[in-house]
Amino acid sequence: MFKYSLQQIAQLTNSKVVCGDASINISNVCLDSRNYNLDSNTIFIAIVGKQHNGHNYIREMHCKGCRLFWIQEGQNVPELPNANVLQSKNVLEAYQNLISDFRNHFKNPIVGITGSNGKTVVKEWLYSILSMHTNAVRSPRSYNSQIGVPLSLQLLDNKYDIAIIEAGISEYGEMAKLEKMISPEIGVFTNIGDAHQENFSTIKDKVAEKIKLFKNSKQLIYCADYNEIHQQANQLVNIELFAWSTKNQGNVNVEISKSEKSTQIRIACKGEEIKINIPYVDSASIENAITVCIAAHLLNVPTEIISRINTVPPVEMRLELKQAKNNSTIINDSYNSDVQSLKIALEVLSKQSQQEKKTLILSDIQQNSADKKSMYIQVQEMIENSCVDRFVGVGGEVSTHLKNIAGAEFYENTQDLLTDKNFKYSNEVILLKGARSFLFEKIASSFEFQTHKTVLEINMQAMVNNLNYYKSKLKPETKITVMVKAFSYGSGSYEIAHLLEHHKVDYLAVAFIDEGIELRNAGVRLPIIVMNPERGIMEDLFAYDLEPEIHNFDVLQEFAYHCKNNKEKVFSAHIKFDTGMKRYGFSLQETNCVIAELQKIKNMKVASVFSHLVGADSTELDDFTQEQLDIFKSICNEFDSSFDYKIIKHILNSAGIERFSSYQFDMVRLGIGLYGISAVDQSKMQNISTLKTFVSSLRNVSKDKTVGYSRRGKLQRDSKIAVLPIGYADGLNRGLSRGTGSVVINGQKVPIVGNICMDATMVDVTNIDVAIGDEVIIFGEQLPISEMAELLNTIPYEIITSVSRRVKRVYVYE
Length: 814
Ligand SMILES: *Cc1c(COP(=O)(O)O)cnc(C)c1O
Description:
Elements: E1 4-5, H1 6-13, E2 16-19, E3 25-26, E4 28-30, E5 42-45, H2 58-63, E6 68-72, E7 84-88, H3 91-103, E8 110-114, H4 119-131, E9 136-138, H5 148-153, E10 162-166, H6 174-182, E11 186-189, H7 203-210, E12 219-223, H8 227-233, E13 240-245, E14 252-258, E15 263-269, E16 272-278, H9 283-298, H10 303-306, E17 319-324, E18 328-332, H11 339-350, E19 357-363, H12 372-384, E20 390-394, H13 396-401, E21 409-411, H14 414-419, E22 428-433, H15 441-447, E23 455-459, H16 460-471, E24 479-483, H17 485-489, H18 494-502, E25 507-510, H19 513-521, E26 528-530, H20 538-543, E27 546-550, H21 553-565, E28 571-576, H22 591-600, E29 604-610, H23 622-642, E30 648-650, H24 654-659, E31 667-670, E32 689-694, E33 697-701, E34 706-707, E35 713-714, E36 719-724, E37 742-745, E38 748-753, E39 761-764, E40 775-779, H25 785-791, H26 796-801, E41 808-813
Parallel strand pairs: 4-5, 5-6, 6-7, 8-10, 8-11, 9-10, 11-12, 12-13, 13-14, 18-22, 19-20, 19-22, 20-21, 23-41, 24-25, 24-31, 25-26, 26-27, 27-28, 28-29, 29-30
Antiparallel strand pairs: 1-3, 2-7, 14-15, 15-16, 17-18, 17-41, 23-32, 32-40, 33-36, 34-35, 36-39, 37-38, 37-40, 38-39
Helix pairs in contact: 3-6, 4-9, 11-12
Bound molecules: pyridoxal-5'-phosphate (PLP).
């Protein structure tokens, strides 16, 4: 078990206990303030990352009651009364060193997995197989980074016979650090591909970096058909290689024969034969299954258990958040059922701030455990120490073992819960955590809105990555306003705002007052700028603590009037200048007059002065942009010499941040970039939104017939036509009709036939394997928004903001 005193940690990691009691024991760590649940043995580790500084969360943690902190020399730390504080030169390194020590107390084998793809699937499948046979532990989800690996290793305990740890890197130098912590006896190198290539000059270099994980391993499994891996593996010393190949290139020969829906695999592994049959035909699944079988075989799992790989469920690593009835939200995590995954799911639950009340619906836990009783004692503690306000148990075991949880409600099975008329919920975030056999997806579909199955999926992690990319272009002290106007460019309201709040952006900006009020009502506390303060709303604006943009003398007059009538307070406003857009804003010539008017108002603060660029994304307009920047600079000078306090200046939008970062002044305004569109290099962006629907009906149409309104869907041949329940009323632009646009079904691009209707669209799926219910991608990673915009002769902004509000937004956490 992980347990160290502060004193021990200080010794092991060359750190100092700078205040408090050095004898206090630590048994848990917290790296994300949202996950913290008051626990006197949890230390908050303030890690300084490239884009993220844990020290910014120390005050919040102290308010929450945390009294144990691990901080870094030279960082700003607030006063921490009654705290126990450990200080290191580099906190992350010190934490990793501590984990290396901890790992050395684990006496059983560790399997270390790396590679470009398939790491998580191989880990999960191998874990499933091993769990049928022994007591295993694995990295949670895809915890494979410099922080994820130590968190995974903290789970080690000699009660486990084996541990499976995943390692992922994206830069030179990272693997040596992971190797030091994991030091796996058995290595698995899944494959090599293009992922994270941007930081490596060649594939060879990337293999060389990854293979460092196996520096001290005794056995290594890999596919010899990847020549680069094969060559470098053969240069390792003191290691037994299990090089599998379908082309006779290694020492483990594999034969594959595919049928329509399954694949037979025969593995000749050093004198023994393993035969399996898997319900997949794609090459990635086949490769993963082979790797898993060889690893299981090496770990002495009997062949008849290995052959049960065909029963192992597909790996679903994502947690989906969906809006449910009665103003509630559900998180459905029914993919695996064990104590560790419950813990992670509870962490996700604690990060949700859209509804205050948090509910857990938990089924019996189907984890191999010799001692059910102590497992459930652990679960009870976990629940009681978590954010859960309401607990509902489903199944015989939880009813017995968890009956002492205060206020708990119990059901014998899922059906009983669903048919209980007295089971009510409203204004809750509900976590569904059920073993597969409990079929919690039935609860999910009963709680969800079922009106319309077209969804816009928003990837929250991708959004954070995009934010960090733009931050990397800025000085650390430059503030960021994020534009969340137009329902965050179509992606959502408070869900996005809460995420941005956690990531410490400085301001949000909306176009109209109602957007601001919606955010305030959802508990968003960041300062919010309202860019279009229409007549007569000053009162409301300030009642909701919103800040107006002032862009002409009318608004200025209203603002002045409001200030005059409320002398006891001071009001902030943002002054906009027009430097070329000719839309809103005072002109350069008006500067002195504006300043004079502002100075007359005694109880106001000029929070910022700003302007907006017309063509920051376009090289042809660079001269004009430069003129705008110069004009803005002279306006700024006037303000600086007229006010005796610091006023924030800002002009750059997303494209500006990428192309004119030397004009970042004190703040920038990030818009489209957050949502995944770059003016400079699209490859730096991650796709955040995917518009999805499904095939709702299929029919054969002979070539003499036509499809849809006005007989515009002419056919070249007898065709198979799929109907999709999405139309222009959902935001699928009618300009994509008649073959202009396409959609992706089962990985294949198919054209739209005929005219797009209000609520339906027809596509040609002749010669394609499709079934009713199959997922259809309208735009997303495989069908970029920018391509759709080009087809429609418009800009990506219009595409993403046009998805109608009736399309449900689903927020996905990786
Ligand atoms: C919308 C908006 C932005 C953001 O522009 P992007 O091109 O999306 O980055 C910045 N400033 C103002 C005033 C805006 O209206």
